[in-house]
Amino acid sequence: MNKVVDDLKQYGTVQRALLGIQGKDVNNYIDELKAQNKEVPDFGTVEGIYVAKVDEDGSAADVLKEGDVITAIDNKPVTKMAELQEYLFGNKKPGDKVTITYLRNKNKKTATVELKNAQGNTKVVKTADMDVLGASFREVNEQEKKDLGINYGLVVGKVNKGAIRDAGIPEKFIIQTANDVPMKTMDDLQNAVKEASKSKDPVLYIKGVFPTGKRAYFAVDLSKE
Q1: Taking the mean position of all CA atoms in its chain, how far away is CA 153?
Q2: pLDDT digits 0-9 by tens, 112-143
Q3: Who is most buried in 67, 150, 198, 213, counting CB within 10 A?
Q4: Positive or negative: CA dihedral 23, 57, 193, 7
């Protein structure tokens, strides 16, 4: 857990390095195929990680392809997807390099790749807070709930330089959901900003209502410096 603690101290959030694949344990995959009465390919091994999909912008996009079987990472044998994830999470950060040993058509191959984060680059991922929005907010009052027929929402107050203004959201607009999560309290918005800023798509998709009752949808980009 030393890396986790160091990341929190240095960056404020854990730096997750991803290989950019979807996979499953080979032995489990073989069992699935047998249970479905499907032909079981000869992978050249019954231990390792079957690569089911490779993210086109992921770390291994230029190396791995569907059907490969990962057998080792940095010369450490891996037989389960959980082992691979645990090794990367506990030891690597975006920008680090790893050596992958894998089988393709039963032929052993090795390659070194540079690890990326969930956003598809090697930058340090920083957790954003509500300051990035550049606006003040308050919870809707009882009169606003009654007038607009709503049960919750956050009213946009003064708008300064920031993501809210860049997205075209005006003062008095009432935010009801952000990334499909109901915005009932300030903590809800804070949590939504934090989660979105660390995701592959660092955007808040906001739905809400104007004081006139007209509904609207905005995309708030959190990736801008």
Answers
A1: 26
A2: 999 998 777 777 666 667 888 999 999 999 99
A3: 198
A4: positive
